[in-house]
Amino acid sequence: MPLVRMEFTMFYELLQYELHAAERYRRFVSLVMITSGNNGAGLTNLLGEHVRKSDVIADFDSSVAVLMGETDKNDALTAVRRYGNLFDSQLDLRFSVVTYPADGSNPYGLVQTAYRRLSKARDAEKGAVIAADPSD
Q1: What mean pLDDT comes out for the span 48-58?
Q2: Architecture of domain 8-130 in this structure
Q3: pLDDT at residue 1 greater than cutoff 50
Q4: Where do the domains of the chain lie?
Q5: How far apart are the C-alpha atoms of 65 and 4, rounded to whole Å?
Q6: Model confidence pLDDT, tens digit, residues 100-122
Q7: Apex CA 59: angle with CA 56 and CA 65, to 5°?
Q8: In this structure, is the dihedral angle defined by the CA atoms of residues 102, 106, 107 and 113, taken in order, positive or negative?
Q9: Non-local CB neighbours of 29 within 8 Å, separated by 6+ positions
Q10: Which of 90, 131, 98, 78 is nearest to 19 (CA)?
Q11: Would you give the distance in Å from CA 121 to the centre of its chain?
């Protein structure tokens, strides 16, 4: 089972490590942010049973982050569809997706973009997935 709870600084360090490895080996890293209209109650535990063992879950305030090493945007979107299908009747989920290197080159930039997109998803309908900015 992936890590379920960690401090934000520890998450940044792990994200930085993943980005260094991705840069070196020319791979992708995706970060999926998820929020629920139910304030995320139990979301981390539910997701923990359905993410890959290599993915990492971090629980932040009103959202959950899933860090997916060696995962491009299309594969991250496939995972998001799977999460949405699993919990559609139980939870009001909204998602944002960012992928290294296209959406940012450092942890701060990726997380900032993920939160900006998640904010747009919160304003959209149930199940919304924002994986690009309007200018993309």
Answers
A1: 88
A2: 2-Layer Sandwich (3.30)
A3: no
A4: 8-130
A5: 10
A6: 999 999 999 999 999 999 999 99
A7: 50
A8: negative
A9: 15, 18, 19, 22, 67, 68, 69, 70, 71, 99, 100
A10: 98
A11: 13
What CA–CA distance (Å, rounded) separates 3 from 48? 8
Residue matched to tokens 């909204």: 94
* Sign for the pseudo-dihedral over CA of 102, 108, 109, 114: positive
Written as one letter, the residue type at 109 is G
C-beta of residue 80 within 8 angstroms of C-beta of residue 30: no
| pTM, full prediction | 0.91
pLDDT (tens digit per residue) in 15-32: 999 999 999 999 999 999
HEC assignment per residue over the chain = CCCCCCCHHHHHHHHHHHHHHHHHHCCCEEEEEEEECCCCCCHHHHHHCCCCCCCEEEEECCEEEEEEECCCHHHHHHHHHHHHHHHCCCCCEEEEEEEECCCCCCHHHHHHHHHHHHHHHHCCCCCCEECCCCCC
What values do phi and psi take at 120, rounded to 5? -65, -40
Q: Confirm if 43 and 34 have CB atoms less than 8 A apart.
A: yes
